[in-house]
Amino acid sequence: MGGLTNDEPQKESDLFQFLNSMLQQVEESGGGPELELRSKIEALKTETQKVPQASTSGTINEVEVNNSLEFLSAKLAKVQSMIAEVESDPDAKSFLQDSASLWMPLITANADQRRAASSTPPDSQTPPSSK
User: Fold this and answer.
1) What is the tens place of the pLDDT at every residue in 102-128?
2) C-alpha distance from residue 75 to each of 23, 60, 70, 127 (Å)
3) Neighbours of 106 (CB within 10 A)
4) Quick one: where's region Disordered (predicted)?
5) How far is it, in rounded angstroms, from Cα 100 to Cα 35?
6) Which of 23, 44, 106, 128 has its CA at a distance of 20 to 30 angstroms from the CA of residue 52?
7) pTM, whole model, 2 decimals?
């Protein structure tokens, strides 16, 4: 599975430049601002900048594991539903295939790779938002 590389901040920047240019085209053709799309792009940007916290303790209890698994299962079910929608739309499928080089490295990064990318100098990457 692929992951973040040394040029990852540039790839992330390229992705969001691409999405913003697509948004501008949609807004121009629609004649007005697309607030829903803007908020989804911002949410995606926030998600890609999240860095999983390093474990502070050596052990986790069974309840924490169960809660995490339930949360992840719910998110996975939602993603599977969205994938099913895309698979039935040839235009969306083609768009995702054509732009995969922009978004695949971001979604396939592991926790260590995200931590490494977030520790790059501030002038080469937008700082992660704090939560």
Assistant:
1) 888 877 877 777 777 666 554 444 444
2) 26, 21, 9, 25
3) 21
4) 111-131
5) 24
6) 23
7) 0.47
Burial string for 79-105 (b: 16+ CB within 10 Å, else e) reads: eeeeeeeeeeeeeeeeeeeeeeebbbb
Q: Is residue 84 within 8 Å of residue 94, measured between CB atoms? A: no
3-state secondary structure the chain: CCCCCCCHHHHHHHHHHHHHHHHHHHHHHHCCCCHHHHHHHHHHHHHHHCCCCCCCCCCCCHHHHHHHHHHHHHHHHHHHHHHHHHHCCHHHHHHHHHCHHHHHHHHCCCHHHHHHHHCCCHHHCCCCCCC
Q: Which of 31, 38, 33, 32 is nearest to 16 (CA)?
A: 38
C-alpha–C-alpha distance, residues 104 and 117, integer Å: 15
Are 45 and 103 contacting, i.e. CB atoms less than 8 angstroms apart?
no
Q: Give CA–CA dist 71/88, Å, rounded.
A: 27
